[in-house]
Amino acid sequence: MKTKKEFAFFVKGLREIRQISPGYMLYYAFAVFFQTIRPYVNLFLSARIINGIIRGESFQRLLTLALITVAANFLIEVIVYAFNHKLSLERDKFVKRYHMRMSMKMTHMSYAALEDPETHRLKQKVRETRNLTGGILDLPGQLQKLIGSLLDIIFSVSMTVTLFFTPGVGSTSFLRLLTSPWFSVIVCGFILFNVFLGMVSKTALTRKTQAVFTDGADFNRVYEYYIGNYLLDYKNGKDIRIYDQESVIQSEYSGLLEQVKKLIGRIYRSQLFLSTITTVTGVVLNFIIYLYIGLKALFGAFAAGNIVQYIGSITRFSSGMAGFAAQLVTLRENTFALQTYFQFMELPEEEKTGSLTEHTDLSKINSIEFENVSFAYPGTSQNVLRSINLKVEGGQKIAIVGANGSGKTTLIKLLCRLYSPAEGTIRINGTDIQAYDTETYSKLLTVTFQDFKLFSFRLGQNIAGETEYDSDKAAKALELVGFDERLAELKDGLETFLNRDFDAQGVELSGGEAQKVALARALYKNTPLVILDEPTSALDPIAEYEIYSRFNQIAQNRTVIFISHRLSSCRFCDKIAVFDNGEILQYGSHQELVKDRDGKYYELWNAQAQYYT
Ligand code: ADP
């Protein structure tokens, strides 16, 4: 990436941090200032005390200096502690808000983006790059270190400059040489060379470490997915045991672990090599610098106490420069993670829908109409729905049947506005559904998808979709779907937790029981339109029969559209739409359709009937 582009992402990252937690960076700035200044205050004051002792200054003055040193340290310590404490609280808040922001993005992005496999790859990449170089989460810390190093450079330079400009006492030729500008330049050159070596070795090591982590990405992926999540999730326990998945995961993991050990070995070898070089050169160069400082002090250029100040400052200058260079590399490498993060965060949001609001009466459905509706999934060219024309009267019960992949669920997704038709119009009560505003539309319908999800919260909360709920209404809904006996068995009734994620006493529902709860949830919302995708697929034949025999009581005067593979259940419906390959082949009542002996419905009906008769 070009430096300019990298810088743009860095700035964008800082803006994002300000959005997530305003003021967060400010705590970092204060903390780093006081943390960095502390050693210089000590160096400066120690030099004054030593000089005072050498010059034989009064005890009172020395005592005052000592007290100032103690007080300054205490004060800085208190300030640093307070800022660090506040910072750790703020960091906690920041991390939580960051994760919330990612989750909210998943909730608010358009459904097309949500279903797109690219989105999941991108989300995974955000996590991987963040683990690798820190991403948004580590950006404040990285910037803090950069500023810390910069302050180190500024403070140390300002405390070292006098070293080169204070002349010694006397005028021997050696002293003249020692205090000549050229000699100062040479010594500065030595210092800078030493610093340069430190910078090179630190940046090389940072790069190497990052490269090793990049090569180890496979290991992290397997570790995070299988060891960190899969093996820990009790719901996977059955498959893990029966298919001995653990040994497969373990052997895959051990293989990768060996590779990682080799990669880490690479870092250690580089570290050993680089630190040997910098230590040897550092010792030689430090010897020259110390000699220079010592000789100048000997010739009376400054008091011996300043030796402490100069040596301390020069050492910090070296580490400051090395830190600064390494931090620049770290920040630079992190920009890729920032770019990935922004790519994810900028995925298209839910499309803006119309603005017809509450005033539009959607409490009753008069008609639902599909007119010439065609649709292809984004990124694909094949129409999975082709010129669908269908009219449903308010209060009717409609079944949609057809082979897998014939487009039934896609039709429902369009009706729920998860996708928009590529061609044609869907109307409810004569108005294009895209014209209704989101909230008004959400009060119109409930859907139970085949892959419905129940939360590991209380049963009543699951049914109401709210923390506070109407117990009578929830119990009534459960009774309608035949869950009343099971409810009576539950010690805590509607307050029982589903699953055991949050409560050891939680109840594990069977597939059929969960389906009944999902069905009750659809009834609780009491919307004029209920859409059910295979609502009884997990029920035993008796429970299924019970539900359908009470179908009219359950559905009441609502309009119901349901997808089913069991044609026996469609007999309860007013009309049946037979789907095939994205088209409606037949539309009519069971009696009408079963009479057409050449029709698809007759074929499907007979194919299933032989198992039931
Ligand atoms: P049905 O509900 O009748 O089994 P669907 O409506 O789920 O069928 O699917 C119709 C066709 O659309 C199938 O060929 C399926 O593979 C395809 N399809 C479903 N969802 C997606 C998607 N998110 N992206 C691309 N193709 C899809």
Q: Can you give a write-up of this model?
A:
The protein has helices at 3-20, 24-55, 59-108, 111-115, 117-133, 135-165, 173-179, 181-215, 217-230, 237-242, 245-298, 305-345, 408-415, 438-442, 459-464, 471-480, 484-489, 511-524, 541-549, 551-555, 590-595, 600-612; strands spanning 367-375, 385-393, 397-402, 423-428, 431-432, 445-448, 529-533, 559-563, 575-580, 583-588. By secondary structure, the chain is of the alpha/beta class. α1 (3-20) crosses α12 and α9 (217-230) packs across α11.
Overview in brief:
With 613 residues, this protein is α/β, with parallel strands linked by helices.
List keywords for this structure.
10 strands, six-stranded mixed β-sheet, 64% helix, binds adenosine-5'-diphosphate, 613 residues, four-stranded antiparallel β-sheet, alpha/beta
Sequence of strands across the biggest β-sheet: 6-7-8-3-9-10
β-strand amount: 5-15%
Task: Please give the radius of gyration in angstroms.
Answer: 37 Å
The main β sheet shows up as: 6 strands, mixed
The mean pLDDT is 86
Topology, number of strands = 10
| Straight-line distance between termini | 69 Å
> In which range does the helix fraction lie?
55-70%
Helix-strand category: alpha/beta
